[in-house]
Amino acid sequence: MHKQRRWRYYCDFCKRANGSGGHILKHERGCTMNPVRLCRMCALEGKRQATLPELLAALTISLDALQSQCDHCPACILAALRQSGADAYTYAWDYAAAAKTWWADHNAREQEQDQRDEYNAMVAEEMRYENRRPVER
Fold first, then answer.
1. For 90-107, what is each residue's pLDDT tens digit?
2. Residues 13 and 46 occupy one common structural domain
3. Which of 59, 92, 119, 123 falls 20 to 30 Å from 51 in CA-CA distance?
4. Which of 29, 57, 33 is nearest to 41 (CA)?
């Protein structure tokens, strides 16, 4: 028989556990229970992240006000709902559906941007080619 010691790392804000300290540190930065969290969805879009007090103030008005305050970011909405202490069934909002829609929209915007970049590169290459041709006289 042998005995092994395995370290477990726990998030300071929620009860998430992992065997990797690095993964838990990354999780803690964006944990929806962290009052000073960094939203990776907002960062991915390059948008300004609303602060938690702003989100909670908007939530006291309505769910629609919260959604407009954070520009419909599912992670920010979830963070506000979790940290408000409200019952999960108080608001008729589904994180999984909202995140699926957000990712579909994000991927469509990324694809459009890639197509624009490819077109602009093609036009720039044609312009360089036109400038290299000898002028006939």
1. 888 889 999 999 999 999
2. no
3. 92
4. 29
